[in-house]
Amino acid sequence: MKLDLSKVVSGCRLGVLTNLGKNGDKTLEVPGCLLYTRCGSAPHLTHETLETIEKIPAVTQLTLSTLAEYHEVLEEYKEGAGKFIGMPDSVLYCSLQDPAAPCPPGFITNKTVSVWGSGGRMEMTASKFMALQAVVRPDWFQSMADGETVQEDTSKKRVRKSVDRTLAFLDECLQMQQKSQDLQGVEVLGVVEGGDILEERTRSAKETAKRPVGGFVLDGFQGDAMTRELRLKLISSVTAELPDDKPRYSRICCYFPLPRQFPHSFIIRVTFFYRIIKHFT
Questions:
Q1: Which of 22, 60, 225, 280 has the fewest CB neighbours in a 10 Å radius?
Q2: How far is Cα 158 from Cα 27, in angstroms, rounded to an integer?
Q3: Do residues 218 and 187 make contact, with C-beta atoms less than 8 angstroms apart?
Q4: 144-162 b/e with 16+ CB inside 10 Å = b?
Q5: Is the dihedral of CA 58, 63, 64, 67 positive or negative?
Q6: What is the phi/psi pair of residue 203, to 5°?
Q7: What are the pLDDT digits (tens) for 208-227?
Q8: b/e string for 235-270 if b means 16 or more Cβ within 10 A?
Q9: pTM for the whole thing?
């Protein structure tokens, strides 16, 4: 994965993400977006219908929360989630949570995170998380993270713990990836946390950038917990600490059209984003 920038102005970037996919023959213009799926399927679209739509994003987002229940199936299948869902040529990105489904807070510890599937809560240690990534076989995946700091009343102590936990999770994931034959060549994305506290956001960005990650997930900017001015201030401070040659990711969960609290300057400061149009199931 290589980010070729054609223009950078005040932290805002235009370019192309190249060398994507197993064969390195896929590209994605940035800023851009991902194809959102639930358990590998775009909501309300069959594969046949999807193939008739022009300019589908080159990168498909899978969510660990919807795949975790199929761990044993994918392990027995042995050929990865891409072929299993009928999209063997797509570039796959695996996020920890489903960005269109809110998660109950209070279920993260120093050793585990929790995801919610159709059968309820599933607790993930780092070893279980990495074993699942090994059978999914994505091109990139988001590291484990403690993102429960988007509420307005979150204390500074809780935000600091979130950053510390997320960095510790990242270190564990990177160590296990180096030892896994199935995950060689797969990019790990470090998660930048810090809630609405500038000091912690900056610390999280600086420390994550020191690790050998393939890119960054800017978490916690969705929703209405922050004012527009504070969000822009935090985004500017975070992106200033991140290298220009690595992609940045964030998410937008919204009704169409794009909400005004996510101005163009936000979108263009990240490489691409998950734009989730609200759907009903």
A1: 280
A2: 39
A3: no
A4: bbbbbbbeeebeeeebbbb
A5: negative
A6: -65, -45
A7: 999 999 999 999 887 677 88
A8: beebbebbeeebbbbbbbbeeeeeeebbeeebbbbb
A9: 0.88
* Nearest C-alpha neighbor of 93 from the set 242, 258, 274, 245: 274
What burial letters (b/e) apply to 71-83, b meaning 16+ CB within 10 Å?
beebeeeeebbbe
Q: Which residue reads 């989730």 in tokens? A: 276
| 3-class DSSP assignment, residue 194 | coil
Q: Residue 258: what pLDDT?
A: 46
pLDDT at 242: 92
Would you give the DSSP letter of residue 218? E
Residue 266 pLDDT: 43
Look at residue 143 in the predicted model and tell me its pLDDT: 97
Q: Is the peptide bond before 247 cis (omega within 30 degrees of 0)?
A: no
Q: Give the pLDDT of residue 199.
A: 97
Stretches where the chain sits below pLDDT 50 are 253-268, 275-281
What the block records as the tokens of 53 is 């739509």
* Those residues with Cβ within 8 angstroms of residue 223's Cβ, 6 or more apart along the chain or in another chain: 150
Q: At what angle do helices 228-240 and 198-209 cross, to 10 degrees?
A: 30
* 8 A C-beta contact, residue 270 and residue 31: yes
Q: How far is CA 98 from the centre of its chain?
A: 10
Q: What does the angle CA 38 – CA 43 – CA 44 come to, to the nearest 5 degrees?
A: 150
Helix residue ranges per DSSP H, 68-226 = 71-77, 80-84, 126-136, 156-179, 198-209
Token representation of residue 32? 């851009």
Q: Which residues pair with 116 in a beta bridge?
A: 121
Give residue 273's pLDDT.
57
User: Among residues 106, 96, 221, 100, which one has the least CA distance to residue 170?
Assistant: 96
Structure tokens at 232: 């822009």
